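Re: duplicated header lines in exported structure tokens

Our pipeline writes sequence and tokens for each protein into one text file. With two proteins the header for the second block appears twice in some exports. Here is an export where it did not happen, for reference. First protein block:
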Amino acid sequence: MAVDSEPVEAVSDNGVDTPVSETSQKSDDDASTTEKIIIGMVADTKDVFAKFDADGNRSWSDKPPTDLEEAPENETTQNRERTICRIVLDGARWEDANPNHLIHMESILHEVDQSQADYEMPPLNNYHVLLTSPMVRGYALKNKRWMQFFVDGVHEIEFHEGAFASLVLSQERKKLILAFAESQVKHRDSFDDVVKGKGRSIVMLLSGGPGIGKTLTAEVVAEQMRVPLYTMSAGDLGSSSDDVDENLSKLMSMVSNWNAVLLLDECDVFLEERTAADLERNRIVSIFLRTLEYYEGILFLTTNRIANMDDAFQSRIHLTLEYPNLDAVARRTIWTTFLDRATCDDGSGKGDIDENALSTLSAIDLNGRQIKNIMKMSQLLAMQTGFSLSFEHVKTVLRIQGCAIHGN
């Protein structure tokens, strides 16, 4: 490999500008050529080689797009942006979403004829690995955007194994929901409608008041199954029927390809009964019904107003669960869960919040989201005062919120 290098300015590890001497290297030894170039540019060649080697091997690893990874502090190459979220690595769909990208790479499979269909690409050697891109392409689930990520900032997800057990729901319902979801992923091709490609989804409608675990159910099911969770609302799809048609079709195709769980939160705009007075919303509902017929994945719908549901949805929903308001036993479980997770700057936990205090807290009519918010504010108050989290901190927040505390 012949390499001609020009004089350039580089910065060494200690921050001192280091001029690189002019060289004209022509050698068949890839290793010696690469080494001579890199040695002139950086102070610690060994560590740089090790980093390039590690990043290259991670970038080259053959991962399907369903593998979920976490980007703790990644930045895009053009408009740099820090993001801490879960991502799905999917280079092929990244290219589809960015057709005008300057570097468009066709899959190598397109260039292999049928006679070489069984051909296996040999593993990369160390010097090939050094030349791989430091960036990987994927979808940021929180940002809802296709982005590029530095490979050394992408890490495997540590799924919360105990999340499903902490869901405040009867064991019978929990087993039923999880069984439906897992069976859909494993056997979705085994059931088809009269028309091929229809009826391959599992749709579950969760209804009830706010803060009682509807959204959490979808989240912990995805966590238990170790698959991505894509959350959307009606606003994410646009306001016109044309926007909804285009965006919903693309989104459902993408989520199905990942074997992900799709959550449509507060879906009342789609479920509400159609009327002759609002033709545009009628078109949106019709589009949603049609798209739902051909969806091939798991869909959770949440709503507060099941009584207003359009009749056409009844036959398209496989499981409907009504969530009751929380009773004292359920609230106690939620308080206990958040208290067990509580930590302060000094590493201390729930402090003097004993069983009597729990009984007092459980008697207050709060939903799960309100309990979570009160616990968060109580922890912040404890951190600010420099003391361990205590019952007094929680009572202070409750009083500010206007909650009546009985017995204490």
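Second protein block, exported in the same file:
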Amino acid sequence: MKILLIEDSIRLQDSIRLALKKSDYAVDVASDGEQGFWLASTVPYDVIILDLMLPKMDGLTVLSRLREENIDTHVLILTAKDAVPDRIRGLNTGADDYLTKPFSIDELLARVAALVRRSYGNKNPELRCGNLVLDLKRQEFRIQEQILPLAPREFKVLNLLVHRADTLTDRSEIEAHIYEETSDIFSNVIDATISILRRKMADAGCTVKIVTRRGLGYLLEAQSE
């Protein structure tokens, strides 16, 4: 699942992003309304977490413009404003749910999960790239109906690449996704993980390749079967 967090507080960004990553979500972060609107209007997300008090473009304007462009991604608004009129305005603008600061991270995760369930209903949600299938409910990859056995780090890297299949993913994004803030990062770990993934995918007959764009990052490319 792919989440967009639009929040200008670095402290809150870090705590929310870390919690989402631990719950196996892929996370993009925007620090202002203009960047958030651009990401939300160009990249498909499962849920958008949107602060209302943002620089450059406030959250309600971001939300209103997204709905005007028929982008119906579920939106959870965050706000320090706890007055009923502010909540009503946000919901009437197109938000699906809200949380008032300060809030429990566990409650935020529960509300995000509820919005994801609302998106997919009783369907078994999947992401596909070539013959590579990510079962979002079971959190496993399949190739030609066979489970692709992956170590936890390998799964996290491939999960991120599949969620960002149409865009380049640079090394810093991969490092941020698989390491805790206090972990030591060794430069060869990413290379080794990518190498193992390529071998396992090729051995399983995968039609998707992990392509390196030197100096830019990694990209999934589906080959003709």
